[in-house]
Structure formats: C-alpha cells, structure tokens
Design goal:
229 residues; alpha/beta; five-stranded parallel sheet; four-stranded antiparallel sheet; 8 helices; 12 strands; elongated
Length: 229
C-alpha cells in the first residue's frame, strides 16, 4: 500500500526522465515535486520538507552525492533513493557512503521504482512511528529487536535479526546478494563467501520450526525476498 499523499522530491537534470518519473509517481497517488539540479534540490528540500527524495547522481554543478552528503551533514534523516546510470559496485558504494538509503540503476522498470519507494516510505513510517513489520504471521519489532512467528518469539542472533529486518523492510522486493553483504557485513566482505546462505538457512529453520509456510524465498542468481506464499 502507498503512504497516502506522501510528498516526494524528484531531483533529475534530464527533463525527459524527470517528467516520466514525476508522472508515474503522481499516477500512484504521491504528491510529487521536482528540482532540476543539486542547488535547486537543496532550496526545494528546505521549502517542501519531503518524506522521500529520489535523487539522480550525475548532475552538473552540485551532483547527487554532494546533495546527499549536505543533507546528512544537516542531520536530515529523510530517505534518499539514488538513481545512477553506473553499474559498478564502487559507484553504488559511493552512494551508500554518502548517506543514501537505496539505489536504482538506470534504465529501470517503473514497478521496481514503485517497490523501492514503498519500501523506503515504509521504513520511514516504522522509524517515525515505532511500528512493527509484518509479513503473514511473521512479526518484527525494530525498536525492541524482537521477532515472532505464529506468536512464538524467535531467538535470533544480532546478524540473524539484522538480516531478517533488512528483508522485511523490503518485503516483496528481491534484495540482491551484493546489497545484503554491503548492508549486513560491510563493503569489503567477500561476496563469494557462503555466510549469507548459512544465515538464510538459520532463519528458515527458526521461522519454520513448527512446520509454518516458508516466507524467505530464494531468487536464483539474484538474491532473497520475504513474501507470503
């Protein structure tokens, strides 16, 4: 579900891309505003106080990375979704290091954009409202760092909890192995390691102890997702 009327600032210097993203998000029911470059974005941000920023990386003058750093230096916690035409891991890492919450590589499908926007707004709602995350009968409380399946509390290690939290924040979205390693183990972790598969196995055993339906699914060659069967 969309957060009704959520205010989104789209920052993109390419008019065609900017207009397309604006129209698509408006059609989904969001209150969308736009900025044409980094300097414009900072002015518009202060005036609008949006609930989400969709921010292009490559712009003339003040680029997206600089805008992101400036906002984070101001202690702004608003979710930021970076748009980038670059596919290299180092470019994604640079965006996350600058303070972005997520990134999307161009060209992208609108359905993926919508899914990531929903996930970031849901994350913001949880942070602001201290709400629990739910997928079927699996419940996770980020503030208390507790999780339950079928009303039975799960005994999770820190890494297990962090991994389950990441997947549930992005419920319905396939989270890539690279993203999981970056968020949970750090950028320099060897992604050929079997650690992720081991921890997914731990979580499945703990969330299916009493024969419950599997909620943590593998998307071969991509990553993992949490969704109701």
């Amino acid at each position: 579900m969309n957060e009704p009327g959520a205010r989104i600032l789209v920052v993109e210097d390419d008019k065609a891309v900017r207009d397309a993203v604006e129209r698509a998000l408006r059609f989904e029911g969001y209150d969308v505003h736009t900025a044409v470059d980094g300097n414009d974005a900072l002015v518009r941000f202060d005036a609008l106080q949006p609930q989400l920023v969709v921010l292009d990386v490559l712009m003339p003058g003040t680029d997206g990375l600089a805008v992101c750093r400036i906002l984070r230096d101001r202690k702004v916690t608003t979710p930021i979704l970076m748009l980038t035409a670059r596919h290299e891991v180092s470019d994604r890492v640079a965006g996350l290091d600058a303070g972005a919450d997520d990134y999307l590589v161009k060209p992208f499908a609108l359905d993926e954009l919508f899914a990531r926007v929903r996930a970031l707004l849901r994350r913001r709602s949880v942070t602001d409202g201290d709400e629990t995350l739910r997928v079927a009968d699996l419940v996770l409380d980020p503030s208390r760092r507790q999780a339950w399946r079928s009303e039975h509390e799960l005994a999770l290690t820190k890494t297990e909890f962090d991994l389950l939290e990441l997947l549930m924040f992005n419920a319905g979205i396939v989270v890539s192995r690279e993203t999981i390693y970056e968020r949970i183990w750090g950028y320099d972790f060897e992604t050929s390691s079997k650690s992720l598969d081991v921890y997914i196995g731990y979580l499945r055993r703990k969330t299916e102890t009493n024969g419950e339906t599997r909620l943590i699914h593998t998307v071969r060659g991509v990553g993992y997702t949490v969704r109701a069967a």
